[in-house]
Amino acid sequence: MRVFVTGGTGYVGQAVQQALLRHHHEISVLARHPSNLASGVQFVSGDIRQVDLTAVMQGIDVVIHLVGIIEEKLSQGITFDVMHYQVTKRLVDAMRQNGVPRLIHMSALGTRENARSRYHQSKWKAEQYIRQQGVDAIILRPSLLFGGGAPFFQMLKTQCHWPVVPVPGSGDTLLQPVARHDVAELIARLVDLPQYGGETWEIGGPTVFTLNDLYRHVAKTIGREHLPLFHVPLPLLFAAARLGQNLPGFPVTVDQLFMLNEPNVTEDTRWHQIIAHPTPLGTDF
């Protein structure tokens, strides 16, 4: 299959490249810079917000759309609406103009109508556009990803070295981490499985943790058996995040606090038809 990948040089995209190569697909990756490209992958230079997608997708069989951000950069025009919705709209429109038959779209667990976070709102808007345009797509909504230097888990690991670790709220939020390489392998196999078009799958790992549990799990990997946790009241955190939202480098955003304090779990196991034994969270973060 000829596969066109957006976001292919990012955290998930690098694993997807490797999985696609194992399955002997012909891969083109659109990116602004040719870094993090595996040998044998064709580089397509361009900014997805501006490049002529109709021209670069000629002859493609499947599009894998992985573009996503977790934090906005307003001065650069990088917003949730632009990067999640408007970019997806450009991509879907180009697919229809070129007659590209299939799309595998990366969304996020927690995406839903009337979500509190603008992150999830923009993801929902993108999903809805895909459905309304009648594109043959499977939409994937993974929970927190781990493995290969996952940014969220690297942040937890750094904090676990502190004398006392601040935790947003009660720390009882339920999370269901899933392995990056499992999601990448799932995507690579779906390229050859058109029968799943039109479906939306939620993807969670085999174990549900509280946020407190995750901190303790990560702490044990660095030899801290008894991690002192300090639970910071949410009203205080939200007030600080609103004050600091325009300051460069402020450690947390209002959107991230919304997401950290709502369950991120699922009972959907349809993806086990393809990945029968999902990887449990271990020590590879």
UniProtKB/TrEMBL annotation:
Molecular-function annotations in GO: protein-containing complex binding
Residue ranges annotated for the NAD(P)-binding domain, each copy included: 7-192
Source species: Sulfobacillus thermosulfidooxidans (strain DSM 9293 / VKM B-1269 / AT-1)
One Pfam family, short name: NAD_binding_10
Top-level taxon: Bacteria
Protein name from the UniProt record: NADH dehydrogenase
InterPro entries according to UniProt: ComplexI_NDUFA9_subunit, NAD(P)-bd_dom, NAD(P)-bd_dom_sf
Signal peptide positions on this chain: none
